Amino acid sequence: MTRLLDARTSQNASIANSISIPITILSAPGLFGQVGLNVAGATGPIRTQLSGTVACQLPLLPAATTITITIVRGTVLTDPVIYSSAESLNINLLGPQLFTFTASDFNVPIPASGLLVYTAFIGSNLLGTVRVGPESFNAVAYSD
Question: Which neighbouring-strand residues pair with 103?
Answer without folding.
Answer: 50
